[in-house]
Amino acid sequence: MSEQAFIPYSCQQITQEDIEAVQEALASAFISQGPVLGRFEADFAKKVEAQFAVGYSSGTAALHGLCMAVGLKEGDEVVVPALTFAGTSNAILYTGAKPVFADIDPISLCLAPQSVKACLSPRTRAILTVDFAGHPSPYRELRELADCHQVLLLSDAAHAPGGRYLGKAIGSDLADMTAFSFNPVKNISTAEGGMVTTNHPEYATKLQMARTHGMTRDEDLLVFPSEGGWYYEQQFLGFNYKLSELGAALGVQQLKRLDIYNNRRREIATLYTEQLSDLPLILPNDSPNGFHTRHLYPIRLREDAKIERANLFKELQSQKIGVQVHYIPVPYHPYYRGLGYQMEQLPETEKYYRSAISIPLHAGLKEIEIERVIRTIRSCL
Ligand SMILES: Cc1ncc(COP(=O)(O)O)c(C=O)c1O
Question: Phi and psi for 299 in degrees, rounded to 5?
Fold first, then answer.
């Protein structure tokens, strides 16, 4: 019998058009700080119904830019889910501010508004929500809480480009600023890259400066009178977080196929849900309030399942099915433990983490691979 091929849990989709667009950017006069980034930003802003989009070199850099644009500093707190990639809360720590971890809703796997409420304090500057697995956050409830406590609502939509919530695009004015990631496992990719969208011009300006060392050439913004055409000023401590023209060229092409990719992900998720629903599993639900981009498909073992999570994981790996656990809750990491974080107050995050496995889901999965994933899970259970 021939060797079975490995099925990755996610994978970038690269077409001939993508390759040609990157080649064109590579052969152009500017491989960084040229016109293509502006085009990608304009196209992305239009797609997510935002006034401004600012490209970054990664999703984490985009989140850091967003935190800098808010002006977060030591003494500030930001409420964030414990169930996320550490990049979300690391971006808060980079500024000196403190992440305060809230629990998830066990159905949406996004922030539970009641838990957020319990985390708010006079030091809270913002709520930073995560559209986990592509499920839109409860933006309406979070906005009410944010307004009531006069804090900002920010979003990490690394999993949710193209998503919608109550008729609005993720990345529009649902949050004050929204960060996206385009790393290779995301719904669209620029190799490494990210974007922040906002409708607030003052944040857009800060976002542009934060990615270039806190510098500006804009005459209207200068602190001192311009000394000539070369003149620019550094006004705060920023970073070099620019997205290259090669990444932007890939992004322009990938964005054109975002809806196709998201719809394919949704079709595969529907198939999984149909074919796995009789097993002792809790399956991830679709959003009742919008468009779920199905970035991940995390299955959870029910208590009556006859197999342990670690054994199921090992068995699927040995059958060459790419699996992951998204995520080890951030406060579990030794670095965060060292900062004094614990998990006692987050029972739903803990329960989810102990039972979850993400199974393959990406727009390039073939029927035969989907069938093999389903068949293998069924045989393990
Ligand atoms: C929820 C979430 N936030 C932030 C990030 C960071 O994005 P990047 O890998 O592009 O820095 C990721 C990516 O892994 C993510 O999944």
Answer: -90, 145
pLDDT at 344: 81
pLDDT at 185: 97
Query: Domain range holding 354?
Result: 258-380
User: pLDDT tens across 240-285, in order?
Assistant: 999 999 999 999 999 999 999 999 999 999 999 999 999 999 999 9
CA angle 267, 376, 9 (to 5 degrees): 55
**Is 369 among the domain residues?**
yes
Q: How far is the CA of 80 from the centre of ligand 1 (A)?
A: 14
Active site residue 366: no
111 pLDDT tier (thresholds 50, 70, 90): very high
Residues 122, 55 within the same domain: yes
For the CA of 326, the nearest atom of ligand 1: 16
Residue 361 placed within a domain: yes
pTM of the model: 0.98
